[in-house]
């Protein structure tokens, strides 16, 4: 069996050798029809567009994307061509929750706010949004949830309308998949009308997909003080991001909210497990993230410990200083571990 793998997928080399006869690594943006023609399976990230242009005439039977999102896979073409595919739902949900937790602590300190006096609106309450809700509850915040698909299945009792969130929230954070059309369309969900409906000059956080927020409308809202701050990890037209928005963002990072080593290891494991299941191979491998350089943290309180584990201002400063290095900063991201990797001593 031959597998082509995005060369930025970590912790995979030793494991994949146990299940494949031939493995080829390539940058995600450099996958070509010639490269994949005689491959049985692909393991990709969002930079590889798996569509007719890439796949037609190949012997590819299975695609695993080591990401939650799958809008880079032409699912309709794959269905027509008999190509199975899988994503990695929930793989980095704890990593995104860590990013939100640390970002809120930085914002609270810089803006002299008390989180337990604020209301947060969470738009999209799947794997990630649910963990973010737990973070917010631990901070003592009032939490409003918005999730149309879940509301239809579970009833309206637990959920709030977008209108209510726009009117009552001090912080609004987006955790939806990108749907460009249809009943649950999320493309430009936050547009000029949305920002015009805001009542409390909230902080806007986006760690979902850049296209969920209309960039020009967000910039206008920042400039006119309809919102107080923006914390942005995902951007329209990546890696050619809007420099003006980056400069004005309270925190601006290169699509790395889900990039903890734990989340990456989860995604790699899920991708290999899916390939083994599809091709009916017995997988005999272990995938573990490396230990942090300093696994013992000394802190006065939990907030201080959280920011020792991960402080997003470091990523933000790197991107703001060299925005042209968006892809490099994302691709060569330093080791970040989640709380379970540490021993905290108060």
Automatic annotation (TrEMBL):
Recorded catalytic activity of this chain's protein: 4-phospho-D-erythronate + NAD(+) = (R)-3-hydroxy-2-oxo-4-phosphooxybutanoate + NADH + H(+)
CDD domains, sorted: ErythrP_dh
The D-isomer specific 2-hydroxyacid dehydrogenase catalytic domain, residue ranges: 14-280
InterPro entries: D-isomer_2-hydroxyacid_DH (IPR050223), D-isomer_2_OHA_DH_cat_dom (IPR006139), D-isomer_DH_NAD-bd (IPR006140), Erythronate-4-P_DHase (IPR020921), NAD(P)-bd_dom_sf (IPR036291), PdxB_dimer_sf (IPR038251)
Leading EC class: oxidoreductase
Keywords annotated in UniProt: Cytoplasm, NAD, Oxidoreductase, Pyridoxine biosynthesis
Cross-referenced Pfam families: 2-Hacid_dh (PF00389), 2-Hacid_dh_C (PF02826)
Top-level taxonomic group: Bacteria
Binding site for NAD(+): 147, 233, 258
Residues of the D-isomer specific 2-hydroxyacid dehydrogenase NAD-binding domain: 107-257
Catalytic residues of the enzyme: 209, 238, 255
EC identifiers of the protein: 1.1.1.290
Presence of keyword Cytoplasm: yes
Subcellular location: Cytoplasm
Binding locations of substrate: 46, 67, 259
Gene Ontology MF annotations: 4-phosphoerythronate dehydrogenase activity
Gene3D superfamilies referenced in this protein's UniProt entry, alphabetically: 3.30.1370.170, NAD(P)-binding Rossmann-like Domain (3.40.50.720)
The protein's annotated pathway: Cofactor biosynthesis; pyridoxine 5'-phosphate biosynthesis; pyridoxine 5'-phosphate from D-erythrose 4-phosphate: step 2/5
HAMAP family in the record: PdxB (MF_01825)
PANTHER family: 2-HYDROXYACID DEHYDROGENASE-RELATED, GLYOXYLATE_HYDROXYPYRUVATE REDUCTASE B
Quaternary context: Homodimer.
Function: Catalyzes the oxidation of erythronate-4-phosphate to 3-hydroxy-2-oxo-4-phosphonooxybutanoate.
Family in the record: Belongs to the D-isomer specific 2-hydroxyacid dehydrogenase family. PdxB subfamily.
Name assigned to this protein: Erythronate-4-phosphate dehydrogenase
Record lineage: Bacteria, Pseudomonadati, Bacteroidota, Bacteroidia, Bacteroidales
